[in-house]
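@channel anyone free to eyeball this complex?
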Amino acid sequence: MDMNEIKEIFFQECEEQLAELESGLLRLNDGDRDPETVNAVFRAVHSIKGGAGAFGLDDLVSFAHVFETTLDCVRSNKLEPNQDVLKVMLKSADVLADLTNVARDGGSVDQARSAQLIRELEALAKGEAPPAAAPVAAAPKAAPVAAAPAPVVSDDGFVPVAFSFDDFGDDDVSADLPAYDVVFKPKSELYTKGNEATLLLRDLSRLGEMSIHCNMDSLPPLDQMDPEAAYFSWKVSIKTDKGEDAVRSVFEFAEWDCDLEVAALESGDVAEATGDDLPMQPVPFDLSALDDELDAPLGVVEEEEQIAAVQEAVAAAEAASNVVQMAASASRGAASDKGAAAAAAQNNAQQASAAAPTIRVDLDRVDRLINLVGELVINQAMLSQSVIENDSNGVSSINMGLEELQQLTREIQDSVMAIRAQPVKPVFQRMARTVREIADITGKSVRLVTEGENTEVDKTVIDKLAEPLTHMIRNAVDHGLEMPEKRIAAGKNAEGTVKLTAKHRSGRIVIELSDDGAGINREKVRQKAIDNDLIAADANLSDEEIDNLIFHAGFSTADKVSDLSGRGVGMDVVKRSIQALGGRINISSKPGHGSVFTMSLPLTLAVLDGMVVTVAGQTLVVPLTAIVETLQPDAAAIHSFGATQRLISIRNSFCPLVDVGRILNFRATQANPVEGVALLVESEGGGQRALMVDAIQGQRQVVIKSLEANYTHVPGIAAATILGDGRVALILDVDAVVSASRGQSLHTETSLAAAG
Amino acid sequence: MAAKKAARKSLSLAPVLDLNEANALHGKLMALRGNPLAIDASAVERVGALCVQVLMAGAKSWEEDNQSFTFAKVSDAFTKTTQLIGVNIDHLMAKEI
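replying in thread with the prediction:
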């Protein structure tokens, strides 16, 4: 494993830490005061800092350090994590993420922003820290004074005579230095991770004058000992002018693998402490021999240093992964004693996702596998079809075997698809940041509530979801929510709420973005549409149609164009990207109460459960998720409506009958409903339609092959697939057909274009 | 004399006594159990806490067996490290005879 690989692991783990950090901060923001949450947040920053230190990423380290210091104040209850504090912290988390990205990908960060945040963090750490922390902070400044002419500053009223500083022994000078008691108890993990207690103690001894006692009480006899377990523990008393932080930082990389206590001693206690009942062995200042052994053979030095660096890095990486585990156990802990049911449920979910061991796999490899499995499924279908065709004596052993094969391929395919499925959480978390930034710029107070973050969906969908979602969130905050004063005037909470929900619904993922803002101003939208020649001035539009105007290209209602949104490139782009994913977007708005955007996306872009049907001699596949039921229409149930429309009465309710063959132009005349089969489908709008087809061939899982990639877009057709007999069948775009049946022309709408 | 007292054995320590060496050192000491032992630590350049633990456990066990356990020769690095980590080996140093 070379350094770059280790570094890559570090960055991957950074991402996890950052996610952990953010969700922890958000929990704190929601009023969670569980110490474990604070700890998890602290650990996340700490291990990023640790790893960054190992790779010499100074910017990252220095920022993380300041951040960590402030978090430490929260951890030790010196700083109350109120809304203002958390606001700074959340911003700091964003900057930390930026710095991490810069460290990985190059580029630059907004220096002014991070400098500003550093100042804010420092102010928080200092300003609100009670005097308990003061001696430590003051120590570095006080020390030089103490080492200088100490007697002169004593204001006893007289100047001591004939005081020779030369007589001062080193001991006397250091006697004025603050002393610390360090109890260092390594755990066995410390050693197995390549850390070495002797090196830690050596680094510690460099800080100042140190006395040490090694506790060997727990050392078992030779034959009962585990040579790689930790038995020694140390009690160290050290006098240093570098402060407690310096002492702690010696143990930085080992902190989780040892029990460490650092206590500052009053100078009066020093003698007492050193003259403790434990026999302390003074450690000689001159440890040059230990350095020499490293420095002496010149050729070896570099090598050793490299080894040390690598070891350190590995330790850091390991420490980082350790922290993830700790965080997982932390959330477990939190789950057990937290009252809030929702929080507990979330924690449980986290536990489930974090506790299981994972590996990182290149996405390319997964995709190759998925593709191959897709071919396997097709091949299996072809094979079983040809066996059925050539099988004259009914049930044969080959048939049985083929059935098993079919189940097996099905299972393989499901498992492979599950590999690609990822929770939407990372995307949702990115949205939290977007909301914060826009709220900041617009001066609005916004709260983002997310639900169903663990809903899983195909990785491709997740990746492509971020951009449209960002657009929509921006719109929701910038246009949707009102300014705080306006909200108060309207009798609403000054803080606006944007809610992001993900859930599975009938084989699709539905993402809902709702705000409690003013809702769409239909008058304004309508006027704007007329101004922009999108609609005729006298057009009679339903509320829904007006709402949907905002999806038109070149449409913006904001009076002033802001940096964020309002240039009218937003919603039409959103609609297009959602459609490119085979999804649909809907809007519903209530003036004064806000708007809800609903996106429905396929869970995967690779396979589909379909019903194979025949229409005018053509084989079509109807996505099974769209079908509610199938029925054989009765002549008595068919009613004519208007010139061309027909209705079918199903259990005393009427439902429009849609002739698929007619709409797709497969035939010139209307088919006789009684001779065909009606598929009752639910369209995205919520209404039900009966699609009329000639016959049902069966149900099958089909591998989606993009029509766009191989041919061109066909209206009313979502994609294509290859059937068992090797023929190509088209996959019906139910919604496009349904809307076409409402008299609108069949035009480029949805597709499953993103599939390979 | 030889019949009553086992022959005095000596053990030379490796230059680097780190994590990897701890097990080996433990094995060597176990094999030498019951014999008076003189340890030659003159080649030691680096020694970790684990190996010191093993050596100290050895010293303890040897003491229980009433056998002598001494450091015949020690390197500077070895002495400094034991001093650094507060392990006193003075009483185990071979007395000049």
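from a first look: The mean pLDDT of chain A is 74.
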